[in-house]
Give the backbone structure.
Amino acid sequence: MPFVRRGFLTGTLLLPFAARAQESWEEQHQRQLKEDWPWLGRYAEDNRKLIAARRKVDIVFMGDSITEGWQSKRPGFFTPGRVCRGISGQTTPQMVLRMMADVIALKPRLVHIMAGTNDIAGNTGKITVAQSCDNLRMMAELARANGIRVLLASVPPADNFPWRPGLETVKPIRAINVWLAGYARRTGATWIDYTPVLADAKGAMKPGLAYDGVHPTETGYAAMEKKLLPILRVHKA
């Protein structure tokens, strides 16, 4: 997904306001990547407040703009104890570097990991399907090593990425999802396959479930919640 700027940089060196205002979107993006590549500053203050308040965290949602958009489009789903840590445009190597600060430090019982779209798009450079799977495994193993139960979500369907026209998307999405399902079986993680509720037979989003073929609408998120909520009830999250 293209990088969506959510306010000015947090926890990094800031330019004077006038200089920031004159920067293009791409300049802002490149500066943020240079100063805080995984964007550890994005949720640093929110994390500090949560930890200081000793609030119970049941589940953290780790992901990219599809996860970030979930909270903005369906805020009622994020009841107390459900914490969103999605960042628009992010790839799995960036998320690996955020795991300690944005997930493990919050001491949740569960983590919902949904990632891979931006790896396929090459948002932070070329990366193979195998390397994406390695990063997903690293996130899962970090969580398990810290007593956090892992929910592995499928990469959402898309037959194209508007910001990467002409790129093959269906095959790599399916390949990552096959690996995720197998890894979940081998390790005892919970596999959450959103594909049946989101995808058509060709691997695209069903009509009305995404704004641009990638990012879910409110209806798309509601369909995902119908799949997820029974699992959360089992886990009491």
